[in-house]
Design a protein that fits this description.
single chain; mainly alpha; globular
Length: 305
């Protein structure tokens, strides 16, 4: 039951962040807003750790993993996505990023020997079909030109980077590094890297003081970063990166309903088909109990030692 709660909480929050992000697009550059978001989230996480006296002292090897977490999950993947959206429409980027499910399955298989069963593969196929149907029109904008190829390459690199971040988090948890302190240090390192990226990109450090911007910034930092990342990465540790990644396929359903309520989006028969495909794929995966060969489990533990 706890896994289901974490799953639904992650989906609900990250599905709603798409709308919250649109409230930040009027003046402040997007990459600057993300820097503010992670900086605020970092302060909140360290404050939480201090209040609850959580362990904040880690070995040098663990800090290397925390830096890698910051690089992969809290900075580089975002940077690559922003660069990709300069060459592709956001819908096309969303389709490619939904391949996180596939990358997590393949990486778990190649690196840890966790071979996916047919039910997981069927669920991934249905979920990805739903994503493709959601952004079908955007696919028509992709051509064989150099700009599209660059956008696709950057999107794939962002997705692969995020997948590695999932595996780094799982490894940290197997080393008994708690999720919240790990996220605090990961976001700290990620914020510093993102700050360097903003400075190199020449973006202007402006700050919008309107209630709309401030409200969305707080929501994205507290809910979109602190709570959602903690829930999602806890889920990665509990059910595996391959199954946890199915949350990324379910986000569009929440986004569609929010667009219907606030942006006058009209649900269609195609939308119903999309929702059916995505829900069916998620049900197939969530109802499948994970079975790990004892030899594989030993190999994973040895890799962490």
């Amino acid at each position: 039951m706890k896994n289901l709660f974490l799953y639904l909480l992650t989906v609900a929050i990250w599905g709603s962040t798409w709308y919250a992000i649109t409230l930040q697009l009027d003046g402040t550059p997007a990459q600057v807003s993300v820097t503010y978001r992670f900086a605020l989230a970092t302060l909140i996480l360290f404050g939480w750790c201090w209040l609850h006296r959580l362990r904040l002292r880690f070995s040098g090897q663990e800090h290397l993993l925390l830096m890698l977490l910051g690089l992969t999950l809290f900075s580089a993947n975002y940077m690559l996505l922003y660069e990709a959206e300069k060459h592709l429409v956001s819908g096309s980027v969303a389709i490619i990023f939904s391949l996180l499910v596939v990358f997590n399955i393949l990486n778990n298989w190649l690196l840890f020997g966790l071979k996916p069963d047919r039910q997981v593969i069927a669920g991934a196929t249905l979920g990805l079909l739903g994503i493709v149907l959601t952004f079908w029109r955007d696919l028509g904008t992709i051509n064989s030109g150099s700009q599209s190829i660059l956008g696709i390459t950057l999107s794939l690199a962002a997705t692969l980077t995020a997948s590695f971040g999932n595996l780094v988090s799982a490894r940290l948890q197997r080393r008994q590094v708690p999720v919240v302190p790990a996220n605090a240090f990961g976001m700290l390192y990620g914020t510093l890297l993102f700050l360097a990226y903003v400075l190199l990109s020449g973006a202007t450090f402006s700050f919008d003081t309107s209630p709309k911007y401030l409200g969305s910034l707080v929501y994205l930092a507290v809910f979109g970063s602190v709570i959602a990342f903690s829930s999602y990465l806890t889920l990665v540790g509990r059910i595996g990166a391959d199954r946890a990644a199915f949350t990324s396929i379910l986000f569009p359903i929440v986004a569609l309903f929010i667009s219907t309520a606030f942006e006058k989006y009209r649900l269609t028969l195609l939308s119903a088909l999309v929702i059916t495909c995505i829900l069916t794929g998620n049900v197939l995966v969530l109802l499948q109990k994970r079975r790990v060969n004892p030899e594989v489990r030993t190999r994973v533990l040895q890799a962490d030692s």
